[in-house]
Design goal:
By secondary structure, this protein is an alpha+beta fold. It has one domain. It is built from 4 helices and 4 strands. A hairpin with a 5-residue loop joins strand 2 and strand 3.
């Protein structure tokens, strides 16, 4: 069976009020890494000032602060990716651009490749929407 060095990768832009997410968010990401669910490849914080100016902070540019996840491929999110994902950041708010490897899907990707298969489409549905729908439609 084919063994890939990396599994599928997903990019997320996660918005926050204020200039940065709280420590609970970094802890949740760290928990996912510790459980072997994901591998954090890159993490960038963007902040839009009240006058509309965008500031970008690569997590790899910070000191070795406790609670900051280790990055496997810092810089993987390119400037164009960051700019596109940051378009929706409103003045006075911020976002984390998170690039994660889906470790849970790594072996499946190898088996899919060996079988001549390919993922043709993928659509994500955010948890709040799923939960709202199910609370209205399921017993």
């Amino acid at each position: 069976m084919t063994t890939f060095d990396y599994g599928p990768i997903e990019l997320y832009a996660i918005g926050f009020d204020g200039d940065r997410p709280g420590p609970a968010i970094l802890q949740a990401v760290d928990d996912l890494v510790a459980s072997g669910t994901v591998n954090v490849l890159d993490l960038v914080f963007v902040t839009r000032s009240l006058d509309g100016e965008l500031s970008i902070l690569e997590l790899s540019d910070t000191s070795d602060d406790a609670g900051v996840p280790a990055l496997d491929l810092a810089g993987l999110a390119g400037e164009d990716d960051i700019a596109a994902l940051a378009e929706g950041v409103a003045p006075g708010s911020s976002a984390a651009v998170l690039v994660v490897e889906l470790l849970w899907a790594k072996a499946f990707a190898g088996a899919l490749y060996d079988a001549g298969g390919a993922v043709l489409a993928r659509e994500g549905i955010p948890a709040p929407i799923v939960n709202a729908f199910l609370s209205e439609h399921v017993g």
